[in-house]
Structures are given as structure tokens and as C-alpha cells.
Amino acid sequence: QLLWTVIAEKLNPAEVDEVRRALGSSAIDENDQLMMEADALAEIIGDVRQRTDATAHARRLYDNPRRALIEGELRLLVQSIKRCASGDYAEASGRPGSTGSTSSQEREIRWQDIGSGTANDPMVEAQREERERGLQTADPAAAKRAERLMAGDSRERKMLDYVTGVADAAAIRAGTPRTPPSRPASSSVSRPGTGASAGSGGSSGSALGNPVAAVEHFGGKINAFDVDKVAVPLKELLAEERAALLDDVEYLQTCLEDEADRGKRVEAPAPEVEELTAYGDKLREVWEGEKERA
Fold first, then answer.
1. What is the pTM of this model?
2. Inter-residue contact 222 to 7 (CB < 8 Å)
């Protein structure tokens, strides 16, 4: 619920116009429009995600064992190069890492499970580990460097996107949760209903997380006769709500782009096995070079 929605529900119908005028009709309308935009984006994201999931479940990515082996090896090479580029050479090389856990490279790989979308699928496990460790967003500069090494031209970019799409599809079939994009560091607020918590002591600052508590904080002063006495703090809360909604709209747009990119990767046509083999040779060279550098 938006702040104005809660306020209006507690007013006598005859007082609504006067209180709305005192708080600023344009500010109330803008917040309402932003909320509708955010809700529309969330609905579109859901539709795109459903379409991507349906494609992932419908595709037959592994028509023969040879393709399964090559695509599985490519996915593991990509994962290792990303880890090495991020500075985590211990994990990428199969050496004991700082956590003391056994890396996916060290485990026995059952090649027959590659592409199965089960818990034994090493590509699904690799993506799960990336999600848990936050490697996809931990060091953007290192991630970009790794991508430049793996995709030096448009043909290699197409191959890398396809390999990533194979892993995306396998993870979807396994039910692995998606890794959402990171929110900007400057984003400190969230629109009502998206996880912001109410402030302590029932302060008016709790409006973003709990607009009902914020309105109750002002007691019976929100009416046509006394609204001017509380108009300033209420306008401030509307401004904070607007900032939160703008942040959410921007973030949801990023989420939509991320989901659309995932859909393109999952829907990408499969390259010939010979093309995948040649790309594997390239990735092995990159991998060896990264080990030397590390």
C-alpha cells in the first residue's frame, strides 16, 4: 500500500480533497504512477520467466553423448576461467580453498549426468556454487576481463552465450533459484511491501515499510482541520516514498533485462559439435594462460 492509500482510507469522504490538496496532488499522483509502473514491470518479468522456463524444459539439448561431454567440459572450463580471473585460483585448480571444502573440479564427474538437470549434473552444481559464493557479481572488473578472454570476437561471444545458456537451462530444470542482479549501493530504501521493515518505536520514518504504522503515528491530526500541522513531515514521507519507487523501477528494469538475456541464451540454436570442439580448444588455452598468470 502507498502512504496516500492508507491516509485516504481513514478520512471521511468529505475531507479527502482538502487533505490531498494540502499534501500535494501531483506528488500523490506521481507515486501512484510509479507504483503501477513497478507492478507492470514485475508482471512482465514473470511472463518472460515463464516463457524461458518452458523453453528450458522443452528443449532437447543433448541429442547424443558426444555433445553432452563437450558441452559439460566447456561449462566447467568457463567456470574455472571465471574463478581464476577473480583471484580464486585454489578453487579453480581443485586445490583446497579457504573453506576447506572439496571443489567441484575435485569431485568425480559422472559424465552421464551432464545435462540431466539433476543434483548430480556438474553444470547445475557449478551454477549453484556460483550463486552461493556470489562470484557473478563479486568483482565486475574481473568478470569483464574473463569474458574478453573467452569471447574475443562475435563468433566466440555466440559460443560463450550458448554454453552459458546450456547451464541456465539445466539449472532451470533442476529448480535452482536464479541469482538476481545486485541493487545499486546507493539504494537504501524500498517501496512498501518489498521488504523494508518498520522503524522502531512507531516513528513516522516507518512509512516505507509500514505506512499504516506511519499514519497511526500522527494520531487524529490527519484531517481537513489539522492537516496543515502535519503536512511537512507527511510531504517528506511522500518524497521518500517516491525515491524508493524510483529505485524499484530502475532495479526491476535491470531484472527484466537480465531475464530477457537469459531467455535469449536458452533459446539460442545449438552450434555444430565441431564448432563446440574448436571453442573448447580456445578455452583450454585461456585456462592454461590464466593458471600461469595466477
1. 0.68
2. yes
